[in-house]
Amino acid sequence: MSCKVAPVDLRGSLGLMRRRGIVHLMADLPAVEAQRGDLRFYLSEAQTQPNHFAGKPEPETLNRAIGRALAKLMSARGLTDLETAPRAALAELYVFCSVMRSTPGEAGRLSAAFVNPYQVLTIRDHLMTLHATRLRFERQRDTFEATRAIWLMRNGVKGLRLRDSLERMAMPDPDLWHHIVLEHDATCPGQREAALWCVQQSACDRATVAGFLVNTALNGSLKRAVRQGDAGFVRSVRRVIELWNAGWYCNHELALDPPDRVEQTRDTVLATLDKVACDLGGDPWPVPHGLFIRYEGRAVRRRDNWCLMTGTLLSPPKYEDYVDPIAA
């Protein structure tokens, strides 16, 4: 016996999707009222005013951007009321919004059902750019707020080490870690401990880790630790190299100053690692693969209001040192 498929009512279609595409997808969509509810949500988001932070407008959220794209699409197709929209039209709009939020692979699959998939994906690309800007803003804003909290609590807590202050921050701050790692006094145990803590964080930038490993080899810190029997520091440095080779450090946003700061140090650094291995009488140390290159990227944001000796902020954080200017 052949199994008959119930016909799909395509009356009222907006012409956004190919007939075969909409018929294929409609069977897997949520109930009509659930589709309408999601579309209502996006349209309501489009009507909201952007929030302000520190007196400045925040970048647009993805939901609001989807809502504006949806409203524009409905207007272009002459659809003014979701409540009376035909089932086919709701399905097309729902799939359109789904493309905007889906992973790249799923977005490609769904967009293939549209008459003009390139146009739909172009809209998605624009919204993903807005979304990336929003996510970057949220990270920067939250780091600013976390630093401000440290500043506000500065009088309530005494005797903190620099590492203590770092651990108390509610958000990672790779710019601060870079400042500490590249500017700390390697002969000060507290500052060295804080720098080592920074490069043990998975969010630490690759430029920061590269600077740490090269500086540690060239400034005598590693050799001095071997002579003094500081096994903990020596093991930690080796562990950083192992993590580097394992691909643990994924962030590569920051630039070294200058970018070729470590590029020409390979022979000297590797000779130092060989000497350490010889002095320890153990296995050869791993070579940090791909480390001796140029590190180009954005400039590191100012964090010189931190006192590395006391582990405290000398002045409150400034908004412009943390958050990118919002494009008009």
Gyration radius from CA atoms, angstroms: 27 Å
Count of separate structural domains = 2
Describe the strand arrangement of the main beta sheet, using strand numbers. Answer: 1-2
Count of extended strands: 4
Mean pLDDT comes to 91
Largest sheet: 2 strands, antiparallel
List the total number of helices. 13
Alpha-beta classification: mainly alpha
C-alpha end-to-end distance: 63 Å
What string, H for helix and E for strand, traces the elements in order?
HHEEHHHHHHHHHHHEE
**Which stretches are low in confidence, meaning pLDDT under 50 for 5 or more residues running?**
1-6
Descriptive overview:
- The structure is a single chain.
- This protein has 328 residues and is an all-alpha fold.
- It folds into two domains: 19-138, no CATH class; 161-310.
- Helix content is 54%, strand content 2%.
- It has helices at residues 19-26, 32-47, 62-76, 87-101, 104-111, 117-152, 162-168, 174-183, 189-199, 206-218, 221-227, 231-245, 266-280; strands spanning 52-53, 56-57, 306-307, 312-313.
- The strands form two sheets. A two-stranded antiparallel sheet has the order 1-2.
- The protein is elongated and about 85 Å long.
